[in-house]
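Anyone opening a protein record will find just a pair of labelled lines. With that in mind, the following record should read easily:
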Amino acid sequence: MGINKPKLSDETFFLLRDIVYKRSGIFIPENKKYLLETRLARRLELKDLKTFEDYYYFLTYDAEKERELQAVCNSIVTNETSFFRDGPQLEAFRKGVVSKVIEEKSRTSDRNIRIWSAACSTGEEPLTISMMLHEDGVVLRGWNVDILGSDISDGVLKAAAGVYEKYSLRNTPEEYIRKYFTGNGDTYTINGKARSLVRYKKINLVEANETRMVRGMDIVFCRNVLIYFDDASKKKAIGHLYDSMEKGGYLLVGFSESLHSITRLFRPVSVERSVVYKKI
């Protein structure tokens, strides 16, 4: 693109922002205009387009617009994550939430535990959950564990092939690295045991026709996702998560996120000094 780097005007920013919002539910405020400009600049270059106005018309009218709209989603979503992110909340999950689900299901004939890691990016969260459940002997005790990892970006899900940079393991206990990973220089490959409980699917949380295929979840992780949505998209996404869950199921959101003012369909409960939400 060289010295003639295209500039994103305010008018075109609003048009492109609306496209991103309609497609993903992600709302980009005006003070984050640089984010849209930076991340879409590469798309202009790949499409050999000179201006953001050209790109807007491409997304609106071109026969290839659907494919490109998915590429936009892949470019916009933030993929910052790591194994064992937010340790205290994960401890609340393994020591409190899982034990409560097992206790409740032990009174029935249901031996299945279904967990959804929504917006899981490149798969670190569902794989962390899998490793913890293996370590706690949940599978050995006869429970059938199914972990669904989903993301709006098919690009990051393709990256969830099991090979990770060392930086992704920065919070991972050493004993887990030795047991579940094989190192090769600065990359680490996760082993088949940890991957065996996890499956992946591309799902847009604000699209009912994509979330309705997910049902019967006992535990849902949706951490550090709602912060990218405006109130309308938050309500839509939380409503879809609610529909995916069993009555009494548990929802874990990020530490900086809350369901206050979004919905009264969940009751906050304190588990191991962390707040989680229980479906009423």
User: Anything to note?
Assistant: Strands lie at 112-117, 144-151, 163-165, 181-184, 187-190, 198-202, 217-222, 245-253, 266-271, 274-279.
